[in-house]
Amino acid sequence: MIYLDHAATAHPRHPGVEEAMKGALHLAGSVGRGAHGGAQAASQIVASCRQRLADLLGVADPQRMVLFPSSTLGLSTIIADLCRDPQSDAILWIGALEHNAVWRPAVRALGEERVRCLPVDAAGLVDLEALARLEPGPALGVVLQHASNVTGIIQPIEEVGAWCQKHSLPLVVDGAQSAGIVPLHLGRIDGLVAFTMAGHKHLGGPPGIGPCYLAPGYEPQPLWIGGNGVDSAHPTIPATGPGRFESGTPNLPGIAGLDAALNFFEEHPVAVRFEQWSQLREVWRQAIADIAGVELRGESRGEGRRDARTPVLALDFPGLPPEQAAAILEVCSGARCRAGLQCAPLAHRHIGTLEVGGTMRIAPGLESDEQQRDQVVEALRQIASGSGE
User: Fold this and answer.
1) pTM of the model
2) N or C: which end of the chain has fewer CB within 10 A?
3) Segment 49-99, tens digit of pLDDT
4) How many structural domains is the chain composed of?
5) Which among 206, 232, 266 is the end of a domain?
6) In what order do the strands lie in the sheet with 313-316?
7) Dihedral of alpha carbons 84, 85, 87, 89, sign
């Protein structure tokens, strides 16, 4: 197998994840439920995970790290909070490449007419000059995907945050594709109120954990409430802190796995990894760009100009459905990738591939060597020429 689907989920996981998850299953206790040894050990795992996340992302207070069951649930919670006033005619600003985890809850809360896209260029990157001239009007806030899961393009969240702060708008960033691969210091982003993550992607952990940073003073309404081992005699949830959002028994094996995965970054700084992944993407891009009959979509913003991107490439085979191309690729080379709309119809609408069913997405990993790349490129060449069918 040649694994080219890292934008969907990490493979393999970071070292120690499996062992940590198995260890958590053997703990006789649950987080915040009792003072005995097992419960305390479980609580220590959760505390360690919060601290590692805070250290990785430049957050001063680890208690601002909420461990949602998924990034999607974190986004749904926050977007519902931003849009909770049904009488308002204010709009919600989003990016042009957003994932359905942003678009669907926004449209459900407000309707499509009140969900507007920020000004962007041909590649979907926020146009900062146009943004500077934009008067947001009555607005609920801005929700922006940091890195596109379709093309890999990285949005200038610091500059967008400064614009948000100027207009007193809260900024929410979907960091599912950037956490663990793009260097971040969340405490330095103006206007930022929330940053959601996916533990199973570039953070290298298991599925079932979606960390979310909530800025000090921002306490959205949770989507669900119940027991959490905190102030159990009271009928209301805590006014602040992770217990406000973590009602119910937490996924301790998943948290333990993520905690172990985060240990990886102590010896592998994100900044170094970003350079490695960026170089990897460029090598793959150049190799695929030379294949006649394959189009790289959402790439160029001008001759010789390259944007910062995560290692994601969107391939279009004119006349061949992307799912069919991906199936042929796996048969020919053993390579596994994601084909279709990648849960991001807005992105495909912007790059012109919505009507053809999306793209074949190539998301290589650092374990992909030159021999594997050559094998995949040759298979892509055969598919493009029709000889691989």
Assistant:
1) 0.95
2) N
3) 999 999 999 999 999 999 999 999 999 999 999 998 766 789 999 999 999
4) 2
5) 266
6) 295-296, 313-316, 359-362, 338-340
7) negative
